[in-house]
Amino acid sequence: MKALRLDRLLANLGYGSRREIEGLARARRILRDGAPLTDASARIPLDPDLPARMSVMGELLDPLPGLCLMLHKPLGVTCSHKEAGPLVYSLLPERWRRRDPALSTVGRLDKETSGLLLLTDDGALLHRIIAPKAKVAKRYRVTLARPLQGDEAAILSSGELMLEGEDRPLLPVEMEPQDATHCTVTLHEGRYHQVRRMFAALGNHVDALHRDKVGGLALSDDLAAGEYRILGPDEIAAIFSQ
Hints:
By secondary structure, the chain is of the alpha+beta class. Helices cover 20% and strands 27% of the residues.
């Protein structure tokens, strides 16, 4: 089983520098199974249950690397440093922004799109989800400015719709109308602002966009905008079951 020095483990989890971890250890602020760990150089086995057995400054240890989160992204928050406004990382504990390996978003939702966003520090998992060969579908709830004409579903499923400025058509898109100005669409690729651009190509405008499903994993009904929770192995596996 893998083990890390205590100071390196806690520094990687964002608790502070190695010198600061040494201070916490000397002050008996780090406990495992109720006993203080006073030697910052001690090697700690990375047991799966370690976060339940270890505490730092009176709080249970943060999740170990291999973390995957479901976050309900609110409007006005950005996934990219290139966009103005607060980043999604501001919704997480401040310490988590210093984790190594770092937490990254699995793909992006633009500033004016809400809904299911995954974050992980597992690079292999991230690439497995976004890889085209994985064919992980994403479902969106769409609110349109103008009523549907009735032929949109056929056009989108044809695999022939071209977006402005591109030289290859979209892969077939599944569309289910809900009423005159609402529908769901399921994408099997992730082009830049794809949903907004494809409805613009159909002569309509997207007023609101919300992602509620990635693969076989749906956004939890009890997760309010701005909230997140850690996913378990079964939920991560559900991403790949469609």
